[in-house]
Write a structure and sequence with these properties.
By secondary structure, the chain is an alpha+beta fold. It has two domains: 95 residues, DNA Primase, Chain A (Alpha-Beta Complex); 185 residues, Dna Topoisomerase Vi A Subunit, Chain: A, domain 2 (3-Layer(aba) Sandwich). The chain has ten helices and 14 strands. The strands form three sheets. Strands 1-2-3-4-5 form a five-stranded antiparallel β-sheet, covered by helices on one side. A five-stranded mixed β-sheet has the order 10-12-11-13-14, with helices on both faces. The chain has a four-stranded antiparallel β-sheet with strand order 6-7-8-9.
Length: 321
Amino acid sequence: MPGGVSSEQIAAAREVDLLTYLQKQEPHELVRSASGEYRTKSHGSLVISNNAWFWHRGGFGAYSALDYLTKIRGMDFVEAVEVICGIRASPIVASLIVKRAPVAKENKTLILPPPVKFPSRMLAYLQGRGIDAGVIKRCLDAGIIYESRYNGEAVCVFVGKDENGIARFGCMRGINSDLKRDCSGSDKKTGFRLRPHDPDSSALAAFESPTDSISHLCLYPEQDSHRLSLGGVSDVALISFLEKNPQINHVSLCLDSDEAGQTAAARIKTHFEGDRQFSHITVTIDPPVLGKDYNELLLHTARQEREHRQAGHRKDAGLSL
């Protein structure tokens, strides 16, 4: 038997649900949040309901108190069995945190490819995606887009900068191909970001890709919000940004309208609603009203405007004086 505990004790410990354990041994940890639901003081995003629990911050759940003590509180398995069975007294919450030797941070240096002198291919690429010249200039002036070469191929480089304006992330997109690649040493906690004119803006719009965030700016220039690319559907960059910008009180999830994008948006929204750290934030799911993503919507809108202008010219040409 592991560490001296018997198979019967292990089986008994597995049968104890988390609510029963906390009510008996750690009642100070319980916070009743709704009819039939509880949360804990130490983990605000953990919900206990119908004899099961789910930790929204970690993205997993279970039934037993044993899983909670070992997977979330970091307690040794044998110790957890002894605590549940009453063989060992339950220590205070603070002492349950396993003290591990500090892990040395990996020294990741961002390596961005050098820019070309004349970014004509990138300009044509972005304009072909419907991005207007004024927005392109704004990004160029901010140093967050430029043209480079990767293995001889022309690429558009999107740069993510931290709060101090230091580049921490970079991704390359092929101008004449489907190439998608993050630059070496990129920090996923720092996404490509378009800053608002008002640095104290309390609104944030999140997208899957840099092109979509730029397209949204072209479509809705009057919305002076932070725009952040998540580099996919992970919420790592989003959480990092919100932790550094506590003034944000509204997050608009502008992920793709396909199943993957909307599933991720629903997951992120649920996570935030269950996390006390972000309880002050209103989260809305706002996919494009047409097309898979905001760049498709931008191209569709530009095409409609072009057709409308052409129809107006033909009408004017048919007038007789």
